[in-house]
Amino acid sequence: MTRVVVIGAGVSGLVAAIRLARGGAAVTLLAKGTGGLQLSQGTIDILGYAPDRVERPLDALGDFAQANPDHPYAFLDAELVGASASYVAELVGAELLVGDPAVNLQLPTAVGAVRPTALASPSMTAGACVDGAKFVIIGLKQLKDFYPELVAHNLNRTDLPGGGRLEARPVMLGFPAREGEVDSSGLTYARALDDPATRKRFAEAVKPLVAEGESVGLPAVLGLDDHNAWSDIADLIGAPVFEIPLPPPSVPGMRLNRTLTAVAKASGVRVVPGSKVTGYRSPGGSVACVQLATAGGIREFAADAFLLSTGGFESGALHADSRHNLRESIFDLPLRRPEGALVHADYWGDPQPLFLVGVETGPDLLVRHPGGDAVYDNLYAAGGILAGATRWQEKSGEGIAVASAVKAADSILAAASSATTEGAAS
To answer: What pTM was computed for the model?
Structure first.
């Protein structure tokens, strides 16, 4: 049985770990924290802008890759991306992700913009922004991260991607998450609405505010552990209900994170949280082990293959100093960087070249020297640490993450199988 260490507990690390474990590997997942999923919208973005708005992301990937040959989508093709998104949807189930990877939904944001995404929670889909839709956007006085007037005003003035306009009106409701509480977080509300009795009281307060033909837009706090809380509330109100994700931390992201982590553990993945990988040993052309800083001292984790899924600058996996010297934080890997200045002064113009920095891999996801050979013959990378993508602008982050995770896991399993066959033959 091949041994694999996955470093990082974001969506790419979790998906890769699950696929590896289900493919027969002994997998240890090391994470210094809970991963970036809790900062996400709880959706799977494949390609939203290229640079114009994209309606059919898989159809657009070929031309996008041709125009951006250094992008991860240059070696993660549309078939793989679509299959990987569907794989994640199967892992978490239809309670958490629905949709068609080939078609972007157009959903409202917490500031009333319309964003494209491929797969979303079923609790969001009644908020599809289409011509003629009628929304009542309801905020909660005790929740400071959601402003219904802002959302409704911006939605009303938006020319929809498919043409036409929608109607939205704002309402503010006083409904404390806990008795006497005047300033509650989204997580507090989500935990409160896991309780059926609280949901009933909430629905009774909302129902009189809804006019005939309106769908009800609410902040994305409709339950944490009970993934059907939103549908129970919709039934009690007697109208379609949709959640609008809030700024991070995100309850829909937490739902995905908890579910994927539970699936990983149930699949046999050994999860070691709360400790940072601080070093490694490599006596030759392979990584022998990584070193983990713990309260009791340094622990070493040996494996046959290692997958680096630590994210980019936002997670601390990549560092830049004041002179724009760049560094990968664990293996000190060579980084691919654009020519010229990494930061320019036109902050409302083109994306900063800094965001394109990352590690380079081949199609097998082995980490390589930029334009050259593999750095180590058993070190792979996936997700946000890959070079070449401005994920936040393209709305491509999860598509890259899950496709690279699946491809890296399959490459590791194929290499292990090949090594076993060659060993048996000899």
So the answer is: 0.95
